[in-house]
Amino acid sequence: MIFTYEQISKLNDTELIVYNYIVKNVGLVLKMNIRELAAQSHVSTATITRFCHKLDCDGFVEFKIELKRFNEIATKIDALDEEYSKLSDKKLSAKTNEFKKRLEEGEDLEDILVEAFATIREAAYRILGEKAYFCQLLGGLAIHYGNIAEMKTGEGKTLTTIFPAYVNDLTGKGVHVVTVNEYLTQRNAEWMGPVFNFLGLTVGVNLRELSPKEKREVYNCDIMYTTNNELGFDYLRDNMVVRKEDRVGRRLNYCIIDEVDSVLIDEARTPLIISGGVMQN
Length: 281
What we know:
Structural class: alpha/beta
Oligomer: single chain
């Protein structure tokens, strides 16, 4: 992760102006030095220096290097747009099996990353009529590599998440997409589900009213949409069962969290409590 919440919490109001400018002007910042950044964000170079120091001295340099890498990868993805737009539906949907076979033969996710992003970008355009913008490709890459991607309402967060979800499910180990409430869970699954289905992946929605059997089926889907609370309670219930086969969860692989500040900070302050009956001998 480039910037942690602990680091950001140390920034004063003026330094937060710098942070917000960087987030909103990624492409421009890649080409700037510290003096230029100070001028464009209307602060002093001393503020930029303090900003860099609070982000472990070379945070700004590290940030630029990481963004530059994402920018280069996104450019390669964008370059495949015309080629992939000419593929038939059958050839495009067959890409999933092609990627899985390549992984089985020894390649890793890094080897197929660009092509996989290009594949689901084109699939989303055909199914939803929405083609991800360059900034959404950058956001998808940031999430894929374990970073927090800050995006405002209306900037296409839901579409952005399908990129890392698709890539990381190609290993066959499943992906959890976590949201803060059941409305968003169902909406996002119904909205993005057809894109995954087009590419041969299964999509499940984890709801409170599901039976243990139904939950196991949902957890075994390629992509599972769930709320953070339901995921937590399932974990607690799985640790209360007597028989291993009664558990609903599967081995953890990759998770994408929407509204990460709310889930990992605000709601994390409230413990999940569950109780069970007395064991009978």
